[in-house]
Every structure is written in structure tokens, then in C-alpha cells.
Design goal:
mainly alpha
């Protein structure tokens, strides 16, 4: 029973963190459609709906080998963690933790790199700037 609660807590926390990351990315990209989907996910009354929305919205560049790790984990979750043994819940929680760490680490790095690139490109294209020469 402890591992089922651990899994529930991990999934609930992760779904909130993922939706926040999706909101940041949508804002950075100016993607209104994604912003609407994110808002709907935030307002979803059930954590299962938030996790499904997060899995559906996971960008292709965070799907190694074309596999959506959140979708696979959502399938485990939606089967009903209450029907899983304590050991199975612990295994799913560990898999989810590994997948989320990968997503958060890589997505955060991509967003930071994109912000640096945007700032440089804006500086390069500023006609009032002191130099037209791009910097590194």
C-alpha cells in the first residue's frame, strides 16, 4: 500500500511540473493552440486527465526512438494502480521517476539553449546595434 501512495504522489507532482514546463515552452514558442491545451490540462479535475494531456503534448524531440515514455507510463497508471501489487507499484514509480528525470533534464536544457539563441538572433538583427558582426 505504501508503494501505491508513493506512485500516486510521484505522478501527481510530475503532472503539475510537466504542465508548468509545457506552459513555459508554449509561451516561448508563441504557440496559442498548445497554451489552450495546457490551460485545459491545468483545469482538469482528475490527475489522470492531466497526465494524459501531458503525455499527448510531449514533443517529438523528447520521445527517444519515437517512443513516448509518458504515454507508456500513463498506460500503466490508467490500468489502475490499486490493482497492482506493492512491488509492481514500486517498479512503475521507479520507471516514471527515470523517464521524468530524462524529460525534465533535457527539456530544461533545450529551453535554455533556445532562449540564448533567440537573444543572439535578436541582437544580430537589431539595426541600431553597434555592430552587425554576430558574436559567439
Amino acid at each position: 500500500m505504501f508503494n501505491a501512495r508513493l506512485l500516486l504522489g510521484l505522478v501527481e507532482d510530475a503532472s503539475v511540473r510537466l504542465i508548468d514546463l509545457f506552459a513555459e515552452r508554449a509561451a516561448a514558442d508563441g504557440d496559442e493552440k498548445a497554451a489552450k491545451a495546457i490551460q485545459a490540462a491545468k483545469e482538469a479535475p482528475h490527475m489522470e486527465d492531466r497526465l494524459r494531456a501531458a503525455a499527448d503534448a510531449l514533443p517529438a524531440d523528447l520521445r527517444p526512438g519515437g517512443v513516448n515514455p509518458l504515454s507508456v507510463l500513463y498506460d500503466h497508471y490508467s490500468r489502475g494502480i490499486h490493482g497492482l501489487s506493492d512491488d509492481d507499484c514500486l517498479e512503475v514509480a521507479q520507471q516514471l521517476d527515470f523517464a521524468l528525470e530524462y524529460i525534465f533534464r533535457n527539456w530544461r536544457r533545450q529551453m535554455e539553449d533556445a532562449a540564448v539563441l533567440r537573444a543572439k538572433v535578436q541582437r544580430w538583427s537589431d539595426p541600431s546595434g553597434p555592430s552587425k558582426k554576430p558574436d559567439n
